[in-house]
Give the backbone structure.
Amino acid sequence: MVEKDSRLPLYYQLMDILLEKIESGELVENDQLPSERELCDSYRVSRTTVRQTMQELEKQGFIYKVHGKGTYVSPKTHNQSLVKFYSFTEEMKKVGKLPTTQVVSFEKVFCDNKIAKLMDLPVEEEVFKIVRLRLADQDPMLYETSYVPVKDFKNLSSQELEKTPMYEIFRSQYNVKISRALESFMAVSANNVESDMLNINEGAPCLMLKRITYDQSKVIEYTISIARGDKFTYTVELK
């Protein structure tokens, strides 16, 4: 219970109580929290204290509000380590989520100057342009646009990509071994297409990830991913 004589501010004590309920599993993702009045009555604190608690929990990403409905426990974010190469499919399986892929579009296009330079290809070389929505437990997580050389993956199809992870196709069908990848990050706001695909508000904070993937010195893929800011955190270990 909240201790009125403690040196800790009342709102901070109430935060600890609610966080303990979330961390212990008593309150789980998307559970509705008690109303302001219920919290006031349960813990014998003022509405000002409750509101300060809720503001701080929302700012730290532990809860979210739905206008006219109430306050809910935020879904947990996926903490992705950047120490080694990773696959979305494998990472989601590790945390017990079911990964799925929806191929939004799949077409052959000619390299423009930018793509040709990034992938070390001749201008107007044919590449597959693949737009995919990556989901975990049917929740949209990433909106990706990938470029893959047609000459190296001639029989690649959208049907395969919805059933089998791209890197698994590269390995099993084309004997391609990923040796390294270069990845850059940028904070962005979701545009109208990205917000629609990811089921978030237009302008919501996201991360743009640009990845160039290699088999030895040869570029086999260039991908631009838009990751939901409320679903991912990225960690780098510095030594």
User: Anything to note?
Assistant: The helical segments are 10-24, 36-43, 47-59, 88-94, 113-119, 158-163, 166-174, 192-198. The first strand starts at residue 63 and ends at 66. The longest helix spans residues 10-24.
